[in-house]
Amino acid sequence: GKEVFFQSLEDAPFYLWWIWNADKGVDLFFVVSGFLISLMLLKEQNKTGDIQLKRFYLRRYLRLTPLYAVIAIIFWVSGARNHEWIWANLLYVNNFLHPDNMALQWTWTLAVEEQFYLLLPLILIFIAKSPQRSFMKTMLGLLVLSLLIRAGVLYYYQELWNGHYRDMLSDKTVSMIFYGKLYDNLATRFGPLIVGVIAGYGYCFHQQAIRHWACATPYRPLLLNLLSMGTIVFFMHFPIMESRFSEPGNGLRLYLICNRTLFSIAFAWFLMSAFLQLSHARLFSWFYSLRIWHPLGQLTYSIYLLHLIVILLVVHPLNQYVHTLELSPAQAMLTTVSLGAFLSLIVTIILGVLCWLLIEKPFLNMRELMAVNRGATKPTPMESRA
Would residue 52 be called left, alpha or beta, if left means φ above 0 and alpha means ψ between -120 and 50 degrees? Predict the structure, then answer.
């Protein structure tokens, strides 16, 4: 039962604690996405004085939808659970559904992202046409608003305000409120996207000022990078599932309100440091620039769409096999997680390569050709992934 599951989590070794916080990968993804998209939009706005909304929206749709549609059709034909709701995925409104009705439940992130990018160009145009409005003040105001919304939602739903974190994940009633109201909708998850936009703005227009501030003293870049890395490691390894931390109280409330934003700010600074090659982040910049990451970067979207399907197909039979062995609950979980992760990764990468070659690449080529024919400049490799 769930008590055995949570006990096995508490007994897991330190190096597996990140599994408790693996969903921070979504916030990391939102920061990178906000950074790249804002960079592209701000460059266009700075160069032409405007943003071509129709072209931007079409580029976004053609970037995400072809492979998504193929997987959605296969899902619908298979008659899998909630297949009748798959239309909401292709309209990027699936996160508005009750969590129990969502098809391909992990794709709520795409809905949040597309809803945000429906609004972001309009916000940038509004700021540009209102000289009295400061970009940074507006974005920082939105960031504070994101925290207030999370606090308000948490307080409004007393099941969350007075709830146990474990119940938010395992109790049927509480978990539906948690996922539907706090976890998978734009209003409570746009904070990391705003952090990415702020980082993109700083990198686009204020590189020298950031370098000057960060390097004002010899040790400041190193200290800032250590602080950001320490924050990232802290939140990735925070034992939120342990009963002493998951019990109701102000500590848990503060964690639920702020943890994603603080994690995102720390990661955004480290990302900026790498791009600006500050101090020891040069090593990360060099590592990221290695050629091996380019093909893997092209596969990230297909891997994301496919990973949970593959995990479900791999872990179920693997779990049945592990239960035939005479292992303790902690050993069984460790074996299933380790071997399941390895096998799932291999299968997902193979399928990702096939999806990239047969579906994604042809449509990306068509998208870039359409953009050039309409007078847009050819995007950089980094921007073409956005």
Answer: beta
